[in-house]
Amino acid sequence: MMKSYKDMFIQEIITTYPYAKDFFNTMGIPLKSSQETLMGYINNLDAIELEHLGIEHKEVYEQFEVFMQHMEEIKKGIRLNVESITILGGYNKLGEKEKSAITMHKGEIICIVGPTGAGKSRLLADIEWMAQKDTPTHRQILINGQVPPKEWRFSLEHKLVAQLSQNMNFVMDLSVYEFIQLHAESRMVDHPSQKALEIIEQANLLAGEKFDLETPITALSGGQSRALMISDTAFLSISPIVLIDEIENAGIDRKKALELLVKKDKIVLMVTHDPILALMGEKRLVIKNGGIYKTLTTTKQEKDNLKNLEEMDQILFRYREQLRKGETIDWLH
After folding, report:
1. Most exposed residue of 111, 117, 126, 174, measured as fewest CB within 10 angstroms of its CB?
2. Which InterPro entries does this chain map to (predicted)?
3. Which pTM value belongs to this model?
4. Per-residue pLDDT tens for 77-100?
């Protein structure tokens, strides 16, 4: 019979489950080697320090157990089977009821549009947190048509949602290859070195400026960082939902980036005001006054218009390349 974590000594846990330290480091209460049992260690944690972290002794162990269960699932290669997510409308800032339920399926791109301050980030946050009528909007998020298990909301490693923000900063003193290989190893994938090479190769197809394996991760430009993280998310992230904030400003081949994520069966939700990206989506959620004002389905006419927009974009791309090379644009063709 397997011994309970709470009865194991700290050193035994660290030796048997090295990743257990990650849980405590993330919580801000690093696990130190000692002769105590895990439960003894937790019970001796300073109550005031825990209060500052917003957690009680009992909850530390409960969340640790959830963390360890998910780590075991990752090791076994178990992946969450998410076919769809559904947003059940809440209320906008004026207290008005939002429109009815919206369901999104894997492999779909859903765009979110609306003016600054309309509530786009709040919607992304509700999805990321799998809101259960407990956020300011009172929205509820369903997974595969069901209320998700509580532990999914607080999982540290087996997250349902991966978010690609506008700004990315690296602080590790590693090369690009070392960084990605380290991540691949942490995901316990087969052949992590080969996987790292594949990710970097794909990232270079997205980036405007190429980089090599030995490029320091801190030396990457904003666009290169974004390209690397999109490729990393597509290949390594087990999160079935990807939230993207304004990819049009990332300096990458945004169409290829979306195609890569969709090919990996991700559900892509994207805040954008780029007409090409917006029309690539199956639907557009229009946000106004903090709520979902309406849902638009991309029409056949808009899809036809998308082809024209892409041709115009290619023309602009060529002019941008001319400028990048220090050339002039004396006439249009």
Report:
1. 117
2. AAA+_ATPase, ABC_transporter-like_ATP-bd, ABC_transporter-like_CS, P-loop_NTPase
3. 0.66
4. 556 678 899 999 999 999 999 877
